[in-house]
Amino acid sequence: MTGDVFTLDHVSVTYGDVLALSDVSMTINRLGVTALIGPSGCGKSTLLRTLNRMNDLVAGAHVEGMVLFDGVDVHAPDRDLVELRRRVGMVFQKPNVFPMSVRDNVAYGPALHGRRDGLDDLVERSLSRAGLWDEVKDDLQRSATALSVGQQQRLVIARCLAVEPEVILMDEPTASLDPVATMAIESLTRSLAQDFTIVLVTHDLRQAERISDRTAFFMAHVHDEKSRHGELVEYGSTEAIFTDPQHPRTREYVHGRR
Q1: 62 contact partners, CB below 8 Å, separation of at least 6
Q2: Segment holding 67, helix H or strand E
Q3: Which residues does 29 contact at the CB level (< 8 Å), separation at least 6?
């Protein structure tokens, strides 16, 4: 299946009375990596969380406009949130492993969704796909918290893969990692992008340039010292954004910050 997996139509997000993101319209292609870049406070993570309604967990959050996933409004009254978040998984900046064994971390989601058969095979397949199997296969009962930070992040990705998502949202997944672990996650991301849609928030412009297919650049519109909101400035192929940006603010950011 090809085409767009997400369509955002005039999406704005407020937290209480505070506007965080204003009037974003864009589509996100199926498969490949779409990077969201821009300075802090420009709404990248806010946008990411609208895609699987993680903003619902923030008190006072309100979304205007429409977010379509496979052509269906994610805010439709009868939308099954559990199913949405299974299909649209998320990996956070800091690996949030569960205080249980490596095996049980991966098996947790499928078991929660009612799967009982073939869990061991699924655990092996998910860990292998996340590039972690060879490092943990001899002791799957060890505590996940005993793994290195880089291993924990790959375990979180394996846990996400185990529930068979279609989309993986990544919110600065390498921000807390050393260069070696970062390279491992980048290589894994490119590999997964052959079969999954990946939306990546990153402050690392070189990372966006290395591993993404399309890039969206956001900036913060400042009203005063205490008030600002994010807005989409430019969106296109990563090559075009980094070599021939059309908007002056994009050009200044990607050339001045590299």
Answers
A1: 13, 14, 15
A2: strand 61-69
A3: 3, 4, 5, 197, 213, 214
CATH number at 238 reads: 3.40.50.300
Edge-to-edge strand ranges of the sheet holding 18-29: 72-73, 61-69, 4-15, 18-29, 227-237, 214-224, 32-37, 197-201, 167-171, 88-91
Residue at 157 is within a domain: no
pTM as predicted? 0.92
- On whether residue 126 sits in a domain, the answer given is no
Range of 34's domain?
4-97+166-256
In a domain, 35, yes or no: yes
Task: Confirm whether 149 is domain-assigned.
Answer: no
Number of domains in the chain: 1
Q: Residue 226 carries which side chain, given as an amino acid letter?
A: K
Q: How far apart are CA 243 and CA 1, in angstroms?
A: 30
Tell me which DSSP letter residue 165 carries: -
Contact residues for 178 (Cβ-Cβ < 8 A; gap 6+)? 150
> What angle is formed at CA 192 by the lines to CA 102 and CA 140, rounded to 5 degrees?
15
Instruction: Report the SS3 class of residue 145.
Output: helix
The amino acid that residue 69 corresponds to is F
What are the pLDDT tens digits along the chain (258 aa)? 557 999 999 999 999 988 999 999 999 999 999 999 999 889 999 999 999 999 988 889 999 999 999 999 999 989 999 999 999 999 999 999 999 999 999 999 998 877 778 899 999 999 999 999 999 999 999 999 999 999 999 999 999 999 999 999 999 999 989 999 999 999 999 999 999 999 999 999 999 999 999 999 999 887 666 667 899 999 999 999 999 999 999 999 998 854
